[in-house]
Design a protein that fits this description.
This protein is mainly alpha-helical. The protein is built from eleven helices and six strands. The strands form two sheets. It has a three-stranded mixed beta sheet with strand order 1-3-2.
Length: 357
């Protein structure tokens, strides 16, 4: 592991204070304020991300985790170690393994990641998911055809396959593993275009979306990222759509600056938001047509439960956008967009496996 640049004493103190604030919030929301604040420490451990040490009442987080991973992952490890503290100090259970039944139950009830490090074990369900993802990947490759009709048909078939697979899984109430991924640069201000893409993902790509505030330890400042949650193929697809639409909206803006409805460079966000809105309308038409085949999406109760347990207190905000000529031009361009290119088969949410104690 490469050496981790040390923080200044001032930044490290600010970081520990921020962790204490996060601890208090999690304790109140997920543990009913039944935990007592322990000694919070940063460690130089390379073989684990976090550890609860009962005899010394110490909760450790690795500097490598805190400085190199996104803040929601840091909080995920903090919650994990707080669950260990709860089992130890509140429930007094000490006759089980560290990640035994009681610990797993505590985590499941609170939407906390109970998994320790190590590669996932392949299952029959996972194999079937990979088959579905591979078929979608091939259809998206065909959707890159220069023949517009062939491209449109391939995208529609991919859309239908995703819809059918998710409807069948939701109807069967099958046990599925959900995962999360974080999108966006936390150091950059979120744009209306990103917000529109997130609305589209939640509406048409079988994931739950939430915007999360984050702390940036290296600068002692704050930002935000979007978190998507769902099954692995849906998270992979949603992440692909996010990157695809950001790039496509920028490309179409550059190609259509000569449109008479675009007055100046200040219309960029309005135009690009229109591109996303137009593509969203196109997907809506496809979804309406697929209803005629009996494919009607009514939601996923198990994913809803996962999301609510993970985020028990959610604030909803409404935003508005200026519907000007540039936005109308973008919507027209967006209705011609064909989603394509293969989805990379990366497995999980990226990065190394979590190492928890």
């Amino acid at each position: 592991m490469p050496p981790i640049d040390a923080l200044t004493a001032e930044l490290e103190s600010a970081l520990v204070r921020e962790l204490a604030v996060e601890y208090a919030w999690i304790n109140r929301v997920k543990f009913g304020s039944r935990l007592r604040l322990p000694l919070l420490m940063l460690s130089d451990a390379e073989t684990r991300h976090g550890r609860w040490v009962g005899p010394t009442r110490t909760l450790e987080l690795a500097r490598a985790l805190v400085l190199e991973r996104v803040w929601p992952e840091v909080i995920g490890v903090l919650e994990h170690e707080m669950a260990h503290q709860f089992v130890d100090e509140v429930l007094g259970v000490r006759g089980e393994t560290a990640h035994g039944e009681t610990f797993r139950t505590v985590c499941a009830e609170r939407g906390i990641d109970a998994k320790a490090g190590g590669p996932p074990v392949a299952s029959v369900e996972a194999t079937e998911i990979d088959r579905v993802l591979d078929r979608i990947r091939k259809l998206l490759a065909l959707a890159g055809s220069p023949n517009q009709h062939e491209a449109e048909m391939a995208m529609r078939k991919a859309h239908e396959l995703m819809l059918r697979h998710n409807i069948e899984a939701a109807r069967a109430q099958a046990e599925r593993d959900f995962e999360v991924r974080h999108l966006g640069d936390p150091e950059k201000r979120r744009s209306r275009v990103e917000t529109d893409i997130m609305i589209l993902l939640a509406e048409s790509f079988f994931v739950k979306v939430i915007r999360l505030p984050v702390y940036l330890p290296r600068t002692g400042t704050r930002g935000s990222v979007h978190e998507i949650s769902g099954t692995r193929p849906n998270v992979e697809m949603a992440a692909h759509v996010y990157a695809f639409l950001l790039a496509t909206a920028e490309r179409l803006w550059r190609e259509n600056r000569g449109d008479a409805r675009v007055r100046s460079g200040r219309d960029r966000l309005s135009y690009q938001s229109g591109v996303v809105r137009g593509f969203r309308e196109k997907l809506g038409v496809e979804r309406t047509e697929l209803r005629g085949t009996g494919l009607v999406w009514r939601g996923d109760a198990k994913l809803d439960d996962f999301y609510r347990a993970r985020h028990p207190r959610i604030t909803t905000r409404r935003t508005s956008i200026r519907l000007d000529g540039a936005h109308a031009a973008g919507r027209e361009a967006g209705r011609t967009v064909v989603l394509h290119r293969p989805v990379e088969s990366s497995g999980g949410g990226g990065g190394s496996p979590r190492l928890l104690r």
